Amino acid sequence: MADLSKLREQVAQSCRILGKLNLTKEPSGHVSARVPGEDRVLIKARGPEESGLRFVSARDIITVDFNGKKVAGDDGLDVPQEVFIHTWLYKTRPDVQCVVHVHPLTVVLFTICNKPIQPLYGAYDPSGLRLIVEGLATYPRSITVSNEKLGEEFAKAMGDKPACLMRGHGITSAGPNVEDATLTAIKLNDAAVINYQASLLGTPEPIPQEDIDILVGKSRGSSSKSVHAGSNWRYYCKLLDEE
Ligand SMILES: [Zn+2]
Question: For 8, which of 22, 38, 78, 116 is 20 to 30 Å away at the CA?
Fold first, then answer.
């Protein structure tokens, strides 16, 4: 079997970044990565000896199969109840290599009030704008996604989008690697925070459609996305080093 220690450490890093940015509540939330070429998943465990996202190390990352059964990992670490969010996205989307599920308060507020996250900024963060304009799905139920049937239903609702808003619950993001799925979750949270703060200050006005078309078109076609993704990821990893 391939050496998975680097991938396991990346999943742990993603957890610590999301925890550091307060993108979840207490120990809830999990990040996973597909084991390349296998029907297996590395996932942040729950259970009596789990660590909260903020404090996750590679030890907290267990291995599960596509039925959500634990196949490797320390005693005291269990499969998250909502493993089916992850397994169903891997089963139905071959492009997906990483899945993030967290409960960011500000985004959840938007799902509670049924308010759309509006495109309020452009050059401030073009790929964040693109996410808001064409990257969001909605899962209207507020239930814990804790069995195969709900996993299938959830994956259907998310479709081929990079992120899904889960009503009264949280968010799920998915991407071609750990960096990408993590940054999508962060950008979605940023957009919700800006929408929320702007509405406290006054009446937020979406930017002109003409600018949306230009910026979204550019960020869709360019390779600059991956260049920025690399430096953004390094930035957040550095934040972790500061302690
Ligand atoms: Zn959840």
Answer: 22
